[in-house]
Amino acid sequence: MEIMHSIIDDIPKISVITKIEVLRFNTTPESYRILQDFVSESIILDLNGIVVDNTISICKSRKIKLPDAIIAATAFVNDITLITRNISDFKGINGLKLLNPWDLPAKQA
């Protein structure tokens, strides 16, 4: 999670869907602990009517998986940058701010 701390100066905000996606995989106990720590340090953004309405609009305007549409709508409604390695899943959603942390220049020692 060091990469997250290097690009987020504030408390991370994540969709409730992101929490589910991150913690649902069977992984090593150490990896799970790291992910659980990240989630517990984050603000969890729940679904609400505005996010639901934006999710519906996104789904009607493009082919996208429902969890991705919810994550995108959550970021858009809360005016936060969506940090993802899968930029292509979200490109073309009007007004959505995207950042791929793997595209950032490496820190100089």
From TrEMBL:
<dbReference type="Pfam" id="PF01850">
    <property type="entry name" value="PIN"/>
</dbReference>
<feature type="domain" description="PIN">
    <location>
        <begin position="15"/>
        <end position="86"/>
    </location>
</feature>
<protein>
    <recommendedName>
        <fullName>PIN domain-containing protein</fullName>
    </recommendedName>
</protein>
<dbReference type="InterPro" id="IPR029060">
    <property type="entry name" value="PIN-like_dom_sf"/>
</dbReference>
<dbReference type="InterPro" id="IPR002716">
    <property type="entry name" value="PIN_dom"/>
</dbReference>
